[in-house]
Amino acid sequence: MLQITIVPVTEYQQNCSIVYDDELRLAVVVDPGGEVEKIAAAVTELGVTVEAIWLTHGHLDHAGGAEAAKKQFGVEIIGSHIADKMLLDNIETTAAGYGLTGMYNASPDRWLEDGDLLQIGEHEFQVLHCPGHAPGHVVFVNHANKLILMGDVLFKGSIGRTDLPGGDHQTLLNSISNKILTLDDDYQFICGHTPPSTIGDERRTNPFLQ
């Protein structure tokens, strides 16, 4: 079975996800925005082996702890799309502008493209490039379990903000329409902040999608 433990990190309460195969005890850490010691404690408690770090996008609250997590677990950083390189190269500068410390620039070992496939044990995830919130934002979809690791594209009752550098409102709406809403209503998603939801609930009730 595919399991998820959510570890809220930083003052932004970003949903860092530990996604793992509960038979093989293999895991990935998705969007370690910071407080890596907290993430590491959760990994130890679960008794899983982290195989990689996946990034949905390059904003500091999602990627600010990626390099520390890479050192902690001895694994590669995978993602996001190369269009986020400027964001990832400037995490420290951006954090300083907000008066934040302990966040570091991230250098992915592998960039992702739309349609790429990633594995956690026997579980396959399709990569969807969904720009708009960030130019290189990607989403991870496990079709077998109808599960989406959404990042900040779509939320319960809302969508990602588009007023940050590289954001564009119409581009985000196009990504949601062309990549996310093509999936069935019973797909559940874990987003970067706030509780999970389903595609069907958002299709019916999200005011930004009406």
Describe this structure in words.
By secondary structure, the protein is an alpha+beta fold. The chain is 26% helix and 29% strand. It is globular. The protein has one domain: 4-Layer Sandwich (Metallo-beta-lactamase, Chain A). The longest helix has 12 residues. The model has no long low-confidence stretch (mean pLDDT 97). It is built from seven helices and 13 strands.
Largest sheet: 6 strands, mixed
- Please state the structural category: alpha+beta
- DSSP summary: helix tally: 7
CATH homologous superfamily annotation: Ribonuclease Z/Hydroxyacylglutathione hydrolase-like
Q: Would you identify the CATH architecture?
A: 4-Layer Sandwich
Counted up, domains total 1
The radius of gyration computed from the alpha-carbon positions, rounded to a whole number of angstroms, is: 16 Å
Query: What quaternary form is this?
Result: single chain
Name the CATH class: Alpha Beta
Mean pLDDT: 97
Strand order of the largest sheet: 6-7-8-9-12-13
Which word captures the global form? Answer: globular
Give a quick set of tags describing it:
210 residues, alpha+beta, Metallo-beta-lactamase, Chain A, six-stranded mixed β-sheet, five-stranded mixed β-sheet, globular
Sequence-ordered SSE layout with sheet pairings:
Layout: E1 2-9, E2 14-21, E3 26-30, H1 36-46, E4 49-54, H2 60-63, H3 66-73, E5 76-78, H4 85-89, H5 91-97, E6 117-120, E7 123-129, E8 138-142, E9 147-151, E10 154-155, E11 158-159, H6 169-180, E12 188-191, E13 197-198, H7 199-205
Parallel strand pairs: 3-4, 4-5, 9-12
Antiparallel strand pairs: 1-2, 2-3, 6-7, 7-8, 8-9, 10-11, 12-13
